[in-house]
Amino acid sequence: MPLHVSIRFGFPPGGWCPKGRKAEDGIISSQYQLIETPSASYLQRTEWNVRDSDATVIFTIAPTITGGSKRTAEFAEKHRKPWIHLALRSSSHESPALILQQFITDHGVEILNVAGTRGSKEPDVWKFAYETLETAFFSEQAHPCSVQVSGFQFQIFSPPPPVDVQPVLLGLQAK
């Protein structure tokens, strides 16, 4: 799961989660500083994460988006937010990380909502997302921005800040 990118590099997560902190695989730990939406609906969480970001990236294995990922794209359209779909099984020969970096640059993204297919439907999707995010944000050519990961938000710097510097998130940067 992309949240592990933030944990690996020591950035505190934050953002929206459904009421009751529910997730597909159980209850989201209170160690993650998430704000619960008034509803237990995944759709409200999804829409609010799209709404409160500058742009959205949707990760899938299959070349087409369906289900909740499709709704994410619809919310991006509704809120007039740019979005991009990165699929592992795409016909593109370009690096997904380079495509993502260019998307972020082209749209001046500071907060990127990261979404994707449920792990129960595409078990390898989070590995693909993790590797792409790690390459895009922590390589030598990484792009500095905030990244909101399907209900989680973490601050990304390039290069990572010195050990004595701890980024502080004071809530979402709503537009």
Strand order of the largest sheet: 6-5-7-8-9
Structural class: alpha/beta
Instruction: Kindly state the number of beta strands.
Output: 9
Largest sheet: 5 strands, mixed
Strand portion, in percent? 15-25%
Second CATH tier, the architecture: 3-Layer(aba) Sandwich
Rg to the nearest angstrom?
Answer: 15 Å
Any descriptors?
175 residues; alpha/beta; Rossmann fold; 5-stranded mixed sheet; two-stranded parallel sheet; 5 helices
Topology:
Blueprint: H1 3-8, E1 14-17, E2 22-23, E3 26-27, E4 33-36, H2 42-51, E5 55-60, H3 67-78, E6 83-87, H4 96-107, E7 111-116, H5 125-138, E8 145-149, E9 152-156
Parallel strand pairs: 1-4, 5-6, 5-7, 7-8
Antiparallel strand pairs: 2-3, 8-9
Helix pairs in contact: 2-3, 4-5
What is the compact description of this entry?
The protein is of the alpha/beta class.
Write a structural description:
The chain has 175 residues and is an alpha/beta fold. The chain has one domain: Rossmann fold. It is built from five helices and nine strands. Helix 3 (67-78) links the parallel strand 5 and strand 6.
